[in-house]
Amino acid sequence: MKFLPVLFVFLIICSNNVSAQTPKMLTGGILNGKANALVKPQYPAAARAVNASGAVKVEILIDEKGNVVSAKAVSGHPLLRAASEKAALESKFAPTFLDGEPVKVSGTVVFNFVGQIRPKTFSEIGFALGVLEKAEVAPGNISIFEISDNLPAGWTEEKEKLFEFYKKPDPAPVKSEKQTGLQTKSAQKKSEDFAPKDSDRASAATGMTLKAEPATSTALVEPDQYSPERAKISAELSAMMEKRLQTEPDKLWKFKAGATLGKISAQSADANKMKAEASNLSKLIATAPGDIAPVKLENMGKLLVMIQSDNIAEEGKTEIKSLVNLLKVL
Asked: 103: helix, coil or strand?
């Protein structure tokens, strides 16, 4: 029994030695600001091809010397994760100390990838106008400003025509003589919010982004209500653009192809309406320029066969929309 106190003291000493030798670790949260050298990740070619962007969160473990010894991306676009992990592993942090001793630190770093802003092609512009012409419900994902900014600087008439899509609300009914002034002013203000100013048109004429501010003191926004003559405006605008492109047959073909695809997309719920576009699509396939990729023409041929079918199942309509989205950039 006399050896028990000695054994107890020995075990305590051993336990303290083990604790002293066991590395301690802290949790540091987001560690971007703690890095001595946070490496900027490369933008992978595969990610660039699909314009992948956004934040990638990487969980890391930093050793006692400030080196990143493990990195695992836990969120973000799949094509951006490997590059983010590589950048995290190559980053360097200052050592972290606890009670005078260096310790490991776990936490996360966040890399934000900004996609390239790519000019819209004539096929994409045609696609937007085709959708605007045929969609039963006004689309909310088409930017009038973006179309305007991507038209050649000299196309002033077309740019002005674009702003006819903005619906000018009718004045509210006047209930009394006392209310007349207020309601007229309110209606006029709403109309001004949607109508392009002279300064807007001047900016459009030079191909610059519109900067004018309406009476609300906020930047002019896309319309939440299009003009009731949306289909007519779209058709007239398409005709104007086709006339402009008569001397550039390749661009004209792409514009017409985009417009046809946009009409098919807008009418994908109605088999008969899609079938009405079959003739145009067939002509486009037969007259395609030499720079159109064979896979694009193959998909256009597949789309033609599908829209000519007498019975299109719901799965087929979904596949048609997918094909159209693949084809709108020509």
From this structure: strand
Number of neighbouring beta carbons within 10 Å of residue 216 = 12
| Tokens found for residue 139 | 């689309």
pTM (predicted TM-score): 0.53
pLDDT tens-digit map of 164-198:
887 655 555 544 444 434 343 443 443 344 344 43
Write the pLDDT tens digit of every residue in 121-151. 999 999 999 999 999 887 777 888 788 889 9
CA 259/CA 9 separation, integer angstroms: 87
SS3 81: helix
Contact 308, 314 (CB under 8 A): no
- The per-residue b/e assignment along 260-289, b for 16 or more CB within 10 angstroms, e otherwise, is bbbbbbbbbeebebbbebbebbeebbeebe
Terminal-residue alpha carbon distance, the chain? 91
* Domains with residue ranges and CATH for the chain: 24-113 (3.30.2420.10), 123-145+227-327 (no CATH)
100: left (phi over 0), alpha (psi -120 to 50) or beta: left
Residues forming beta bridges with residue 25, ordered by sequence position: 104
Tell me if residue 167 falls in helix, strand or coil. coil
Angle formed at CA 29 by CA 25 and CA 30, multiple of 5 degrees = 130
Reported as a single tens digit per residue, the pLDDT across 41-90 is 998 888 887 778 888 999 999 999 999 999 999 998 999 999 999 999 99
- In the numeric block, which tokens belong to residue 325? 């989205």
Strand-pair partners of 238: none
Output the pLDDT for position 32.
86
Q: Cβ contacts of residue 86 below 8 Å, gap of 6+?
A: 41, 42, 71
